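Progress against Task 2.4 (sequence-to-structure conversion) is shown through the following example record, which the project officer requested during the mid-term review.
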Amino acid sequence: MAPVLGCLLLLGLSGNILARAPPSTRNPNGLRFNLPVAHYETSSSADWGPITPLFGLAHAFLHVVQPHDFPEATVRKLIYNKFDIFSDYKEVVHYEIGLIVCASLGLLFVVLMPLVGCCFCLCRCCNNCGGEMHQRQKKNGPFLKKAFALSLLGLCILISIGIAYGFLANQQLRTRIRGARALVGSNMKDLRTFLNETPVQIHYVLNQYNTTKERAVLDLNNIKPLLGGQIHHRLKPKVVPVLEDIRTMATVIRETQVALVKVNSTLDELRNRAGELSANLSDIKSHLERSLHHASCSQNPEICDSIRQSLSQLEMGNNLKQLPSVKDQLDSVNKVLRTDLAGLAQQGYKSFNDIPEMVQNQTTDIISDIRTVLDSIGSSLSNVINHVPIQEVVSNITGYINDTEAYIGSYFYTLEKYESYRWLGCLVVCCLLTLIVTFYYLGLLCGTCGYHRHATPTTRGCVSNTGGIFLMVGVGLSFLLCWVLMIVVVLTFFVGGNVEKLVCEPYQNRKLFQILDTPYLLNEDWEYFLAGLLLQRPSINLTFEKVYSNCKENKGIYTSLQLEKRFNIDEHLNIQKYTEDVNNRFNELNIDFGNIVLLNDEGRQNLGDFVATGINQINYTAYLIEASKPPTKMNLLSFAENLDRTASQLPQGTLRDSLMESVQSIKAVYLHQVIPLERSMSTLYQNLKTLEGTSSGLEARVREITVSLDSAQDFIQHNVSSIVIDESQAYLNTIIQYFEQYVQWAKDSITRKIAACRPLATVLDSAVDVFLCSYVVDPMNLFWFGVGKATMLLLPALILAVKLAKYYRRMESEDVYEDVETVPMKNLEYGNNGYHKDHLYGIPNPFMTSSMVHDS
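Structure tokens generated for the chain above:
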């Protein structure tokens, strides 16, 4: 029933369900699709645990007995109804020869064993075949007894192992048959899960279009940063350096004005201070000259002459008055600063940074049209699901599954009832074998425990004699029962072996599918039966083996049944025409950047006016030379110290006091005039260097800025369209890529993963491989293997038991010997042939008597 159910499910789904999809796909743009995955609980194979090798023993035996390959030609003849028993029987015999030989041997065992048992009984009744209660004593008697006992013990152990196999197989078969209800329920549950998840998966794939559309709409809403921002980014290398240069030039102008103000004010300050310093130096010089005309110089002429000679150093070291004023240049720069060049550059920045906003404003209509196209795509995809009656198919198949489950469930009671009869019968078989081997074990136990080293055959104890009786009871039961047991073994062997070789093995190596896939086998008009049944196109190479293999690999129904031959998914998920519409709309995109002005004419004029201020024509060398000169020809502080040392050499008087007064004057001039003057000249020097650096190459720099500005402005006005086209195409490709990726994922999902048909293969595996082969045939084979082995070993066991019973049972007569050399007495009074029978004469056995006396 389960294989039929699997085929019907394939038929029901073939025309209506599409399938395939990876469980999780993440594209570079952040879209993520997680197809719902169905979880099933049924395993496609049975797990026997640690007893699995036991079934391998039966399989190995069958392989030795039946090594032939599956008879494909014979099976095809049977299906074609071309098998002739009279002409083709040899093929069957050749294939079944191993099983036939083994079954024949079993039947021969069944026939001969009762006959041999009857003959054996009659023979023993005639005091033959070990029936005579007399035992000849031999030198190797103890050795033979031990050998027979150990051999029988080994055979009993082997028989016990076979019986254990039988008990185990019988119980496993009972357990598995009772678990079949759960197996059927699990398969039905998986089929319902399969049928319920299939429409969920299809709806999920279609609904993911909304996710894709939302992502595309999000990008459309963000066209300002995505498209406008990219255009702005592409123009940055061309525009931003120019605007930065203009902004830098505005800073330079301001810095130049500051430097000119400082130079101009510093020059005025230096001229005033230089005049004051020159006047003070002249006063000090005049005072020193008057002092040197004092009469005291006549007394120290050398000192006065040295002082008089140094007076020429008390003069100015530079001539700042000859430097021209920079007031004209400062006025020109101030005029230039009346125009806010930095503000104009900022306006250029604002105009340039408005590009994303301009893009958004100029694409409003196109974005609206594209949204309309996206909505139409969604509507078209929604119509696809409406043309596939999935719910109706699922409803019909679900009802069939319910009916099938109810039908199977109604027979479970009958199955379990007859299974109980089978279990009881097999249990009786194992118990009968157990009874026989138990008598053997009891015989060995009593015979071994009752053994007395000095006992003669006629004086053996009761325990030993009981052991011999147990052995003979086991022998009798063996003759009575083993032929019946062999009938059971032959029947189960022939049935189980053939099912294993003709069903289980071909199913596992898929030769059964190859038989079904034979062209024109099941239908004379169809080359491939499954293709004709499902697709109505029998020429398509769709085979049972391919479908089963694809379902085992959990591929979708669409791929497994080659439904592209009947239902082309590309036609239903073709959005190429819609993407072409989107592409055409974007090709109409025309963004105008004509109102972008980086720097207006006023700014350009301002740059030219700055060059014309004349700061680059100032003689900075002359300024720097004068600014680098010291205020005085010599260091006044050093002059004052020398003068102080010289004056100290003079004697006290008016001259010395006058010179010391001049020293103090010189130091005061140095401290209050020279040092500030030096600082001002240092500041002047630095400002002049700044101006010199600013004016150096000023005209070339402004010319370069003007050229770059013209180039950037021209590029924006005339050549920006190429960037707009490139970035618009890239932006469009991003939008289209979302849908291309979605369509590819949807096709991949539908063709490979949706309605993944592993449950269908599992149903078939559960019916054939699990239930029939693993639950029924494997335990059956193990049963006949164990019971058959035990039954066959009963034959040598009963022979050894008969032999061994002679050494355990109490005999009626025994051999009597005259001396230790064991020479028999030729005296007829002891009985025929020299036998001594104690019960005939009432004479105690001398050996037994002496032994008893000795023991006492």
